[in-house]
Structures are given as C-alpha cells and as structure tokens.
Design a protein that fits this description.
Low-confidence stretches: none
Mean pLDDT: 77
Number of domains: 2
Helix content: over 70%
Strand content: under 5%
Distance between the termini: 62 Å
Largest sheet: none
Number of helices: 5
C-alpha cells in the first residue's frame, strides 16, 4: 500500500479517488489511530468551511444597492462633455452661419439628451 498524504485524505473526503484507492485509505484509517485523527480533523475543517460558505451566500432575492455616487458621476461626465463641446461650437456659430455646424450642434444636443434619458432609465430599472 502506498503512503497516504493529507491531499489524498482531502480527496477521499470529497469522493475524488478511485474505488480501489478509496478502499485502501479506508483500511489504513481503520488500522491507524493517528490517520483517523487526521481524517477527523480534515472532516471537521471541511464542514466548517462549507457551513461558512453557505451562510455567506446571498439569497436570490437580495439585490445589492447601486451606489448613488456612480449615477452622479455619469451625469457629471455627460454634462462636462456637453459643456466642452458647446464651448467649441458656440464661437464658431457666432463667426458665421454655417448650416453644417448648426446640424452638428443639434445632433449633439439630441445625443446628450438621449444619454441622460438612458442613464435615468437604467437607474429606475436597478431600483425596481
């Protein structure tokens, strides 16, 4: 019979050994009080870890709250981008009446309004 190391005892507890090797370990455990004590200690530790894992798991109905700071930062980013683009576009509009530039400004306003709307819809969906 091959010597038994703690990793094999752990595999035995988890049912990961071949049937032949599992029977060898069972026979060795029955013959050796020291090996039996080691198997008992591993079994107790395994039960403790499994119990801790079960108690730490979130039930399926628990939803973690979304941080309000992340919503505020999205609004700040969208606002800052809109402001920077407006600062770049307004002086050009004042110099000449360029229809392409006006169309781009309108498109920008639509995109910014859409982005704000989508972040609000996303925030409502996470609260519901």
């Amino acid at each position: 019979m091959n010597p038994i190391d703690p990793a094999e005892l752990s595999a035995y507890l988890d049912g990961e050994l071949s049937p032949v090797r599992a029977r060898e370990i069972e026979a060795a455990v029955m013959a050796s009080p020291a090996l039996r004590a080691e198997l008992d200690a591993l079994s107790k530790a395994d039960d403790t870890w499994r119990s801790a894992a079960r108690s730490a798991a979130f039930p399926p109905h628990v939803r973690l709250p979304r941080a309000a700071a992340s919503r505020a930062s999205i609004y700040r980013i969208v606002g800052a981008v809109a402001l920077l683009l407006a600062v770049r576009i307004v002086p050009k509009l004042a110099d000449s009446l360029d229809w392409e530039l006006i169309a781009n400004g309108i498109a920008l306003a639509v995109v910014v309004a859409w982005a704000i709307h989508m972040t609000r819809v996303g925030a409502r969906e996470t609260r519901a």
